[in-house]
Amino acid sequence: MTREQLIGTIGKNGKRIQLRGTDLAKFDFSGLDLTGADLSFSNLGKANFRGATLRQVNLSFSNLSGADFTDADLYEANFNFSSLEDVNLSGANVEGASFNFSGRSKYRPEPANVREEPITLTTILQKPGWGTLIGALIGALLVYGCNAIIYFSDLIAKADNPLMVGLYQFLIAQNMADGAACFLLTWALSGWLTRQFRAVWQRHVILSIGVMFSILMINSGLYLVLGKPFLDALAKLPGGIERTADWYIYISGDLLIANVFLYVLQQGRQLTRKLSEQEFQLLNLEKLKTRAELDALQAKINPHFLYNALNSIASLVHDDPDKAEEMTLLLSKLFRYSTGRDGELFATLADELEMVRTYLQVEKVRFGNRLTFSVEISDPALSELRLPQFLLQPIVENAIKHGIAKRADLGRIDVRIYEKSGEIYLCVHDNGPAFPDDMSGGYGLRSIQDKLKLLYGDDARVELQNWPLKQVLISILMTKIRSVRDTETPTA
Prior knowledge:
A hairpin with a 5-residue loop joins strand 6 (460-465) and strand 7 (471-477). The strands form two sheets. The protein has a five-stranded mixed beta sheet. A two-stranded antiparallel ribbon has the order 1-3. The model is unreliable at 104-117 (pLDDT under 50). By secondary structure, the protein is of the alpha+beta class. Helices cover 51% and strands 9% of the residues. Helix 4 packs across helix 6 (247-297), helix 7 packs antiparallel against helix 8 and helix 9 packs parallel to helix 10 (393-402). It has helices at residues 3-9, 121-126, 130-158, 162-196, 200-235, 247-297, 303-319, 321-339, 349-367, 393-402, 443-456, 478-486, and strands at residues 346-348, 371-377, 386-388, 411-420, 423-430, 460-465, 471-477. The two termini are 26 Å apart.
């Protein structure tokens, strides 16, 4: 792709640029607006992003070694799991950007551009010298404000002149309304200001203008509704009303408070975002851990079964070539199912039952008339349910090994699937010897129990029953099956 071709696709049909997994080493992106673009898993080594707008761009899992991001806008960009060797971030806006699990960059930002420690109210107050002075100033203002409230409240309670009581009530209502308006307006505009304006000073200027007009409107309304009668009456008294500071002196205090609120809200938003990203990464790691555990528990065809099947084929080659061919084809079908799933953890119940039928057909060729079997499902609609792979085959294999193989006469295996009371039941019955009382199950059964525990928690269970039938019974809550299906871990 050339730079001209890329420019032609920017903003086309209102879609974000999708360049996932692309080799764009040394590509010139300088000055381009790539907001929201997906460049994940790409080779962007030594790419030129100088002055580019990369707000909310996805650069995760990418090779960014030697890339130049000088003066780029990287607001909320995703650099997770990327290689950042020798990356140049001079003058870049990295507010809200995520660098979790990224390779360390040899570049060290200049103190004037990016500080090692984020500036928050907490870090300011911890600084000796000027940090102490700022803390003292904030403390003084808070105490002064609290004492002013107490002072005017006491005057209202003790004043004999109704005009002065009305004036004090007006002043308290005015200051409380101004304070509430400063916070509410700042809170409402904080997110919009962050999205619309890159420079911090622009956000504070816009907020200050908005707060100033809002406070003037609020004070004018309160004056007309509450203050005017008392102020006019007091003005007619001998000596009138003592003159105080001009209105713009008072409003400067409101602007100061509003801008402090904006600073604190934006710092808190960044902190919340970082915590959310860490929680998201922990969730992803937990999913990866679960996926690895499930892969480790994924049942495989027992090698002894393969040995037995191949020996049976060898013995049938001369005595019954047709049977040998049939068994070879069945064995091929069985192993194609077990090895051709591309790492998927789930399969439809129909696929699982087809595998069980194939497995039993292979065993029937080996056992001959000593083995009969049936595979039944009560409702065909259940065939589309997605369940963990190899859920039934290990149980059927155990039924052959510990049940049918120990009988000299006719052995039977019945696999039944049905739904009852909001649960799906998967039953494997055989007429071999009963389960011993102290049996806890071999590796195959334990792996199934562990797999169900990982996926469904307490909403799935495995039972060994000797009465009324000898069977292994798996039950899973239907709602849990659907919820796990809707959140399946995607395959690589």
